[in-house]
Design brief:
It contains three helices and five strands. A five-stranded mixed sheet has the order 3-2-1-4-5, with helices on one face. The longest helix is centred in the N-terminal third of the chain and has 17 residues. It is elongated.
Length: about 140
């Protein structure tokens, strides 16, 4: 963007000076940006109105204890054999809502009754099962 300064009159300036054109375009662009209204990006939705939920009932907790002599206690009542455990688990698993089963083995009890209770629970469809009292095994 230079200017041709020559001594002869035959030289013509062929280039166009675009600086004022660019200035005018920038001013027009700024004016356009200022005058455009601000768009709010909001979507109107009709949300469903929820009805108040029923208060949550605490589930029934069934405590299954494994005694030091490998006996099985159902809420403090000693079960005589595996069939009695199976009967109680079947009845409890069929209830709606299903009760929570807390298995609490004694640290002196063997592994076999605990494994039997876990296997029978799984076989009969018990879904809410937990082992409690494991802090007694930490030394």
């Amino acid at each position: 963007m230079g200017m041709n300064v020559g001594s002869s009159d035959d030289d013509l300036m062929v280039e166009m000076n675009t600086t004022p054109l660019i200035d005018v375009m920038l001013v027009l662009l700024i004016m356009l940006i200022i005058t455009i209204p601000i768009q709010t990006h909001a979507v109107k939705l009709d949300m469903p109105v929820s009805s108040p939920a029923k208060p949550m009932e605490k589930p029934v907790v069934v405590q299954i204890d494994i005694a030091p002599d490998n006996g099985i206690l159902w809420n403090g009542e000693r079960l005589v054999n595996r069939e009695a455990l199976e009967k109680k688990l079947t009845e409890a698993a069929a209830r709606v809502p299903q009760p929570e089963f807390h298995i609490k083995p004694n640290k002196d009890a063997g592994y076999e009754p605990v494994a039997m209770v876990l296997a029978e629970s799984q076989r009969l469809g018990v879904t809410k099962l937990g082992i409690v009292g494991s802090e007694q095994f930490v030394q």
